[in-house]
Design a protein that fits this description.
mainly alpha, about 55% helix, 3 strands, about 10% strand, single chain
Amino acid sequence: INFLEENGAYDNVDYVSYDVLGDVVCGGFAMPIREGKAQEIYIVMSGEMMALYAANNIAKGILKYAHSGGVRLGGLICNERQTDRELDLAEALAGRLNSKLIHFVPRDNIVQHAELRKMSVIQYAPDSKQAGEYRALAEKIHANSGQGTIPTPITMEELEEMLLDFGIMKTDEQMLAELHSKEAAKAAAQ
């Protein structure tokens, strides 16, 4: 942050984006909050288990500084990975965290085409559907400014229960029944 300040990175800007690891909420994540550089945080996640876990972890970090530093959770942004019931799961997690799903960004291969050319999608294909999605996301973040909430993170058990409720994770009984069924089919085929 000091390097950014010394080089004028914060001069005349409305928004600053940080890309931090969510699996360990530590110094790199906390520093912008402690230094008063983050007022509203948007968590980019997907319907994958580790992304859900990381989003919840980041919410825990926001909660830690919400009362002393005034930081708020602006919302969740789901970056589609095409997992089962991804949109439903993202909306449910947002609700459990006392927040909302700001935008669901659909998966599109144009992102990889732009990355290969070291360009953003807006630069590479400004009139594409995906570029429109990013513009819509920016507009939603701008419209949501100042409406952040203090998050209510959930326990690992509650997260796993959500996955069970959505049929993403199977119970031990379901796993054993599938295993027995496969073994019986294999034995019958011999």
